[in-house]
Design brief:
heterodimer, A: about 500 residues, alpha/beta, about 35% helix, B: about 325 residues, mainly alpha, two-stranded antiparallel ribbon, 13 helices
Chain lengths: ~500, ~325
């Protein structure tokens, strides 16, 4: 790709970006939020059209007209947000759009499912092709996406944050699969924010910043610090700038909480100024626990005490009124209203404060939204920009702004840095510090062990809906947590 | 506001408005009768009922719902209103009764959808039949006719030189614009349609607001019934057949997305007028009513096609 340029309303998303991909290499694409990684890949996969520049494939200039065309050219993509059909079987999803036919128009279901099973088995994944996608966990869905991309002849495979939702074992499975693909001569463009992965599987790395090309390097010739400097354009001293806050009185206490099948007999407490990390594999009941606390899931038994008072949280509204805020794991489907503006999203839970007799007070809303835009450094051309046009990290900041605007004191962050880059991550960590310093209590659910270890004051480990371990930040190590989470005490 | 943002926010309405103006120019060239004050007021008057019902549908469609029962609710609340009037009830009270009947039907839709978790299409399809049947039962299938001049003023009267229905319609649009853009209710309406799950997790009582939206839609159908009854000097149990389709068409031509989360009443007003002007113009040109249906259907499809093309370009 040479000098590729793309503009959006009010934003120059890509400015003369170059990328050269060799056969059979894993090429890492690195950059902060809004650096243009996803945009570049959408152009390559035909979802967007470039405004300028040239693209060459095997030496010949090509024009990628649409996603179908890209696929015919042998370019496959796995998006950050999955695009599987929930009520179709795994096998049907894998072959969606290129099913094998028995007769013209009649699908050879048996052959299709068998072939799908072979692909999954080759990947070393234990998923039955007859399962419906809706019944799979997020991690398993990601692996189905990989299988889907492999079901066609692929020369170039683009993976956008493929591991952001995966557990350690699933990541190993994925990396093994990537190794096999490389051996077959498939070139892989791999977008990731995880530095460790980069050095594990990458051959070369290209850094983008603010829609511009910064540089391409051999992975073994560059250090982590140099890469971070190129990405952010400044030195990043610490990845986890943890500051201990003064721990105050108890904000939240949970006793014997159980929900239908997913959370059983969970008890813990949270104090002012404390960051309580919750670790555990996918499906360990972490997210269900968060939903239940926030009144979004049904609670079967147990008690919740907020500031010492016994409370029944029956709806998110009740939770919000008690000063809870919930940053959901899946920001697009549960966190944001993509068609509303940055301002409207930030002010949504606090609408009552910005309205009198049901009439909105636009100036006060604008002032508040403007304050959080500055405080959180949300990159947007205007407060009236729809959030759908923002990058992942900036969208996450908008959700944070929502709960800050509400002045929530008990914050539940479910995977707060999933799918966002190092620079924005550090900003979010700093924000967590600030919130704790102001006397808020924070529950941080995360699959990233370094994050849990780096940011928590206390760590709970969940497995099969139960709390199976508790560590202070001093005694916790990755190994201890993992052993606990896997049930090997 | 910067020019770019202006185009993003109002580009769609601007396009529809251009379409309406273009249509008017064509008709002006084809027939001299079109662009006279009396004919334009006539168009406005004929459009008013559809335009008012379409406001209710705009609210409903922004929440990603649909209401197929508006025509039947119009008939039912019309005949109840008429019977109350005939019984000698004061006009204001009778109107309130009519509006209440419409609103109750709408609220029932809303309750079934929000609390009964029935898809809006099904629940309002059921109401469409129930309300129509109720209107026929209530009147034994016969129209109720003959009202006082004071009541008929609502349709035949003029305020300054503007027909009363047009004044009512403009008032409805002013209020609706204000509600959608400046109130909590409006904000929540967009939020629910944009992402219901996120709205719930932002503490919005989605069930309550959805129910209210259908209640408003029913009430506006009843307002349409008042004007129609006054105009015809008769309330018919078979009134308002296919009105739901006209109102949905006006809303969609006006750029409200059936997927929810997006839309505006200004667009809907323009959409309603495109349909009204088209009918009027085709009548003036002496085009057969059979062919008119073909033309109007095509316009709906073309409008949505253009909308899609525009959206793609914006992205």
């Amino acid at each position: 790709m040479r000098d590729v340029r793309k503009t959006f309303p009010g934003v120059l998303a890509l400015d003369d970006v170059c990328l050269e991909l060799r056969k059979g290499e894993v090429h890492i694409l690195l950059g902060e939020n809004g650096a243009g990684k996803s945009t570049l890949m959408k152009i390559l996969s035909g979802a967007y059209q470039k405004n300028d520049g040239q693209i060459f494939l095997d030496g010949a200039e090509i024009e990628i007209r649409n996603p179908r065309h890209a696929r015919d050219l042998g370019i496959g993509i796995i998006y950050q947000e999955f695009i599987l059909v929930p009520y179709l079987k795994v096998g049907e999803n894998i072959f969606l759009g290129h099913e094998p036919y028995l007769l013209p128009g009649i699908i050879d279901q048996k052959r299709m499912l068998q072939a799908a099973q072979v692909i999954l088995d080759d990947l070393g994944v234990e998923i039955d092709v007859r399962t419906k996608v809706v019944d799979l966990g997020v991690g398993e869905q990601q692996l189905v996406e990989v299988a889907k991309a492999l079901s066609i002849e692929t020369k170039i495979l683009i993976m956008d944050e493929p591991t952001s939702a995966l557990t350690e074992q699933e990541i190993d499975v994925l990396f093994a699969a990537i190794g096999k693909l490389k051996a077959k001569g498939v070139s892989i463009i791999y977008i990731s924010h995880r530095m460790d992965e980069l050095f594990t599987i990458g051959d070369r790395v290209t850094v983008l910043r603010d829609g511009r090309f910064v540089g391409t390097h051999e992975v073994n010739e560059i250090s982590r610090a140099e890469l971070i400097r190129e990405m952010v354009g400044r030195e990043l001293n610490e990845q986890f700038p943890k500051q201990k806050a003064v721990v105050g009185e108890e904000l939240l206490r949970v006793e014997g909480l159980s929900t239908r099948g997913m959370v059983s007999d969970v008890s813990f407490s949270l104090r002012r100024g404390e960051v309580l990390g919750i670790s555990g594999l996918l499906g360990s009941g972490r997210t269900e626990l968060a939903s239940a606390l926030f009144g979004a899931g049904k609670i079967d038994s147990g008690s919740i005490f907020v500031r010492g008072r016994h409370c029944h949280i029956r709806s998110p509204r009740a939770a919000i009124d008690l000063g809870l805020g919930y940053l959901t794991e899946d920001r697009k489907s549960r966190g944001l209203i993509l068609d509303l503006s940055v301002k409207d999203n930030i002010c949504l839970p606090s609408v009552n404060r910005f309205s009198r007799f049901g009439i909105m007070q636009a100036d006060r809303e604008e002032e508040a939204a403007g304050r959080y835009r500055r405080e959180l450094r949300i990159k947007t051309p205007s407060l009236n920009q729809k959030v759908v046009y923002l990058s992942g990290g900036n969208q996450q900041k908008v959700i944070l702004g929502k709960w800050l605007c509400l002045e929530a004191e008990i914050l539940i962050f479910d995977e707060p840095t999933r799918g966002i880059d190092v620079g924005a991550k550090v900003e979010i960590y700093q924000l967590i510090n600030q919130l704790a310093a102001r006397g808020a209590g924070i529950i941080m659910i995360s699959s990233e062990l370094p994050e849990i270890l780096g940011m928590s004051d206390r760590i709970l480990v969940m497995s099969r809906g139960k709390i199976v371990g508790e560590f202070s930040s001093a005694e916790a190590t990755q190994e201890k947590i993992l052993h606990c989470a896997l049930g090997e005490n | 506001m910067k020019r770019r943002e202006f185009i993003i926010h109002y580009g769609r309405q601007f396009g529809t408005l251009l379409g309406l103006i273009g249509l008017c120019v064509v008709l002006w060239i084809l027939t001299p009768h079109f662009l006279t004050v009396s004919n334009l007021l006539n168009v406005a008057q004929q459009t008013s009922i559809n335009a008012i019902i379409a406001v209710g549908l705009t609210f409903v469609i922004i929440t990603a719902g649909i209401d197929l029962s508006v025509g039947s609710i119009l008939a039912f609340s019309g005949v109840v209103l008429a019977s109350v009037l005939r019984a000698g009830c004061p006009i204001a009270l009778a109107m309130l009764v009519g509006l209440a009947v419409g609103m109750m039907c709408g609220l029932l839709n809303g309750v079934l959808i929000s609390f009964g978790r029935i898809p809006p299409f099904i629940s309002t399809l059921g109401m469409m039949s129930v309300a129509r049947g109720s209107a026929l039962l209530y009147t034994s299938g016969r129209p109720i006719s003959g009202f006082s001049e004071n009541f008929r003023f609502l349709a035949t009267g003029k305020i300054l030189f503007i027909p009363a229905p047009v004044v009512i319609m403009l008032a409805v649009y002013l209020i609706a614009y204000f509600v959608l853009n400046r109130t909590k209710f409006g904000r929540y309406t967009y939020a629910i349609g944009g992402n219901e799950e996120a709205a719930i997790l932002s503490g919005i009582n989605v069930k309550l607001y959805k129910t209210m939206v259908y209640g408003i839609c029913g009430m506006l159908s009843a307002l349409g019934a008042i004007i129609l009854t006054a105009r015809l000097n008769s309330a018919q149990p078979i009134a308002g057949m296919m009105y739901e389709l006209d109102a949905i068409a006006a809303t969609v031509i006006g750029g409200t997305s059936l997927m929810g989360g997006q839309g505006s009443v200004i667009g809907t007003l323009i959409g309603a007028f495109i349909m009204g002007v088209l009918r009027n113009g085709l009548n003036l040109l002496g085009v057969s009513s059979f062919f008119q249906q073909v033309v109007i259907g095509s316009v709906i499809i073309v409008a949505v096609l253009m909308d899609m093309a525009l959206k793609k370009q914006r992205d």
